[in-house]
Each structure stands twice: as structure tokens, then as C-alpha cells.
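Running this now, will post back.
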Amino acid sequence: MNDFDVIVVGGGNAAFCAALAARECGSRVLVLERAPLEVSGGNSRYTAGAFRFAYDDVGHIRELCPELSEEQLDITDFGSYSTDQFFDDMYRLTRFRTDPDLCETLVTQSRETMIWLQKNGIRFMPIYGRQAFKHEGRFKFWGGLTLESWGGGPGLVDGETDLAQKAGIEIRYSARVLSLIHSESGVNGVKVRMEGKTHEIKSRAVVLACGGFESNTEWRTRYLGPGWEMAKVRGTCFNTGDGIRMALEVGASPYGNWSGCHAVGWDYNAPEFGDLAVGDGFQKHSYPFGIMVNATGRRFVDEGADFRNYTYAKYGRVILEQPDQFAWQVFDQKVTHLLRDEYRIRRVSKVTGQTLADLADKMEGVDKQGFLDEIQHYNNAVQRGIKFDPNVKDGRGTTGLEINKSNWANTLDEGPFEAYHITCGITFTFGGIRVDPKTSQVINDDLEPIQGLYAAGELVGGLFYFNYPGGTGLMSGSVFGRQAGNSAGKL
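Update: finished.
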């Protein structure tokens, strides 16, 4: 094959942002995607396409969504999400472990990167329904998450692929990069397996944007701990840590929360890896409006601790720690109209009962009497004098329980009742490699930059520890992907 100025390893959002930015610098760019075309796009294709970014007012939203009608604007409170709020969320959720310099780049470049994407042709729309409920005639957005790409994750990847092709970027699918070409002068190419043959392709720079190690069962068990081989994988089967391994082989510094990951409540009967026909529909994220119980019938988390954006990515781990690695989410008729669309898909592990006893009989693996006793204790503990409001942290909680519910507590007493069987679904791993926060250049064990090597996306370590604010993955992939491509393109 011909040589290129910049080679991007990966085919998801971070990779395409890097490729587009490098192309803007005038570089000849090659994208090498391990997956075949029909399942390409990394984890980005499996997402809902939500982006977390800082904005001041509705004017910033209109700038990104020019199709918004006056009628929509009249009935919607978009509020604001300042850079200070974004910083606070990142520090609070990571227990103040997030790398401050990486975090600063993410937060301060978030809106500018959204504008860059929009001007390049990526379209955005408000996340009505999942991030805003209609209350007293108006939609009110909450939790700092407001916009998603048109068509969700598939629409985002397809849009970025189209932009790359129109820009003259060459894309090769079913192309597994095996190793980096490396010398004393740095990284200057890759070895790649395509069509049964191994090729060497030279370049001035390489950008690694090929995901974490969530699809590598052995690495999950080694780094996340015992039991993680039991987790379902929400997205692509191709994120097996290749990029991290290749970077470490040339001296990259490992960095971040290697024992941590983004993991959620996921349909118990979902397949081993993500299914593009379902997308993110196996997730079950309306738990703040009900309760979750384990095999003993007992609650084990505060379902209403915060907006689901701030708890869903850590509760998968808690579910995995329960007996037999499962839980049930339980709702009554007072709140079923608030359940997200994913609760209505055809392939859902759901049982119903006219009474709680009927429901318990159908909840496989659950101690019936333990469950019924738990419901009685829970119902008696609900603070009924506080008004329920799904758009704010309403303070309607419980008192006197071993694990109290902080918000959105309603008695479970109005049938028919619904229960959803879930387990742990892993999204991506937090540990990765160290990069320069201002250039995305990979740093070695001596804390010096590796010439010609850059990284973006899931394999960048140091941003997330323990938990994660929803919508930050695509945003960080875009910010650091654009930065990596710009740096590589100017080399």
C-alpha cells in the first residue's frame, strides 16, 4: 500500500474526529477499522448518541439545533450547564480523581467541539423523553444532558463516515492493526492484517482510537477482578485492548483506573455482545422511579440517589456483586408511563402480576417472602407528604430503612405490577494510556512524549474513576480525537 501522512486506528467517533481534523490540516489520512463494514463504528454505533457539553442558555442550543421550532422553544426549559457545573460533576463522580488537566481540556473544549461537529455536518436534536419529562405543560431538561446526534449512534457514525469519504480520507475495513512500526525516532507506521496478508504502512504519525479492553474476557478478569467474565458486553466485540497493548509495547505509560469501568443494568437475556438490531435497547435506566431487588428479595442500592445520568454507569458493578449476578427492577402503574422506550422493546425480560404475590411468583430466582416483606417495609417508609416530580431531585424519599431511597420514592401498591430482569452490561473500561492533555500525544514511562504517536477515545486513561457522567464518552472522544488529529496532522 501507499504511505500516508496520518494513520488512524479505529472506526468510531473518536477515530473519525481524529481523521477529519488531520485532513483539515492537509494530511493524507488512512483509517484502519478492525471490524467489517456492516458492524463498523466501534461502541459509538451502539450508543444513543448523547453528548454532554457546557452551554450558557437556549441561544447556544439553537446554534447547534437550527431546526428547532418556535413552538418547541416555547414549551421547553433547556436551562444551562456551565463549565463550573461540568467540572463539578466530573470531580464529584470520580471522587476527585479525574486528571485536572485532561478534565480542563474536555470541559473547556466541549462546546467548541460541538460547534465544529455541527459545522462539519453532524446534526443534533434535543433528547426529549429520556432527558426531559413534560410537567405542567413544559419540558424541563435535567442532569446536564440535552442533545443527541440525529439517528443516535448509528446516525453519528454514518454521518462521520460520509464526511470522511467526501474529504478524501481512505477507509479500510476488516483491517486489524497488529503492531506499531517503531524506531529510535518514534512511531512511523503500522503492521496491519488485511485480506489474509500482513502489510507494513508507513506514516508520519499514528492515532490510536480503537477502544478499551471491555470485550477481552481475560483482561476483564485480570484487571477488573473476579466475576467480570460474567458481564455482558453492551457494544462491539472488537474492543479487546489492541491499541493499549500496542502502545504499551512501544513504552507508553499506563494510566487511570485500570480496575474500573462503565457498567450498567442490562437485560438478563441479552446476547454476549451488543446487537445492532437492538442498539442500546437492552439497557434499563428508569430504575429511579421504582426499586431494584436481588435474589433475596432485598433492595441493595439507593435507586434515587441522583439523576440516572450520575448513577447508571456505576450500578452495573453493584448488580454484578449480587448473588448470581442479577437483579429485578420493579414498578407499579403510577410510574409505568415514565418508563423509557427501552422497556417496550420486543426482546425484553419482563414479567407482570395483578398482585405483588403474583409478580413474585414469576420473578425467577427471587425469594418470594423476602421480596414481599421488603415491599411492605419500603411502602411504610415512603414520605408521602412530599410531592413527586420526575424533573427535579424532589426529596420524596424513605426513612428508617437500612438503605433509604433519596428521591422519587412512591409506594408500590397499584397493580398491575411490572418487573424487569437485569444483569451487568459493561460499556467501556476506564484504564488506558497517558496522553498530553493539550496535544493528545502519548506519553512514555519516563513521562516524555512518544514521537509520532497520539491517542483518543476509550483507551485514554485518567479521565474517569469509579463513575461517569452520562454523555461524556462521545464528548471526550470528539474533543481528544479532534485534538489528536490536529496535532498529528501538523507534525
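Residues 226 and 366 are 24 Å apart (CA to CA). More later if anyone needs it.
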